[in-house]
Amino acid sequence: MEEIACFKNIQKSYDKPILSIDKLHLMSGECLIIKGKNGSGKSTLLKIMAGIMSADMGEIYYQNSIFPAKKRHLLTADSIYLASKAYLFDCSVERNITYPLHFKKSKKHQNSVEEVLRWANLTHLRDKHPDNLSSGEIQRVAIARAKIINPKIWLLDEPTENLDQDIKQKFYQLLRQLLEKGHSIVITTHTEEIAHNVISKTLQLVDQKLSL
Ligand SMILES: Nc1ncnc2c1ncn2[C@@H]1O[C@H](COP(=O)(O)OP(=O)(O)OP(=O)(O)O)[C@@H](O)[C@H]1O
Ligand SMILES: [Mg+2]
């Protein structure tokens, strides 16, 4: 397996130390599952990896460059962070799904809107406003949005919490397809179910550190 990115010496504290990660490798075609107690720092780590939060210290190795683990780093453009409670914009389901396409330079990996709406079983809800959706429907919009951007690195924070069995099975199938195509996936979860459905490596976040 080829290494896509490596995170080294990632340190983050709030009023107390949260993360002190020596090394974390992201490999092409690999799915990492990160488990750990509430408050152990899993979401914080994913947000730092996604470049939506700065670490206090640390470097990222990516595409033959080394740069500090600060906000909006080089990986941001090639990754997506999917929050457990997805944030949707104040516009229709369809606009929410197509919104990120306006910021993407390359169109070559993008999936079609119709295809993605159908996949997520959202076609009948395409004109609805997020205020009128259930939490599972909101999560489906967020996954559909990720699917349409189709980034190299997927950072998924408790992605299956609100999903019913049907869409969960589709979601696991999506993860397997992504891995076959060489994407890299990191998932935080409290359940064993994803590990049972997708070939993955589970890491535990305990006392600021990751271990097998
Ligand atoms: N903005 C903030 N300011 C201060 N402390 C914070 C902030 N955000 C998170 N924390 C603290 O950092 C710790 C790690 O939070 P984080 O959300 O990363 O945990 P988590 O492992 O994702 O937990 P969960 O399983 O509940 O999702 C927690 O103790 C939390 O209270
Ligand atoms: Mg969390």
Question: How does the SSE layout of this entry go?
Answer:
Layout: E1 3-13, E2 17-27, E3 31-35, H1 42-50, E4 57-62, E5 65-68, E6 79-82, H2 93-98, H3 113-119, H4 135-149, E7 153-157, H5 165-180, E8 184-188, H6 193-197, E9 201-206, E10 209-211
Parallel strand pairs: 3-8, 3-9, 6-7, 7-8
Antiparallel strand pairs: 1-2, 1-4, 4-5, 9-10
Magnesium ion (MG) is lined by residues 42-43, 157.
CATH superfamily: P-loop containing nucleotide triphosphate hydrolases
Shape: globular
Helix content: 25-40%
H and E string: EEEHEEEHHHEHEHEE
> Gap between N and C termini, in Å?
18 Å
User: From the coordinates shown, what is the CATH architecture?
Assistant: 3-Layer(aba) Sandwich
Quick one: biggest sheet? 6 strands, mixed
Bound molecules: adenosine-5'-triphosphate, magnesium ion
Number of helices: 6
Q: What does the radius of gyration come to?
A: 17 Å
Q: Could you say what the CATH topology is called?
A: Rossmann fold
Q: What's the mean pLDDT score?
A: 93
Number of strands: 10
Strand order of the largest sheet: 6-7-8-3-9-10
Percent range for β-strand residues: 25-35%
Structural class of the secondary elements? alpha/beta
Q: Which stretches of 5+ consecutive residues score pLDDT under 50?
A: none
Number of structurally distinct domains: 1
CATH class: Alpha Beta
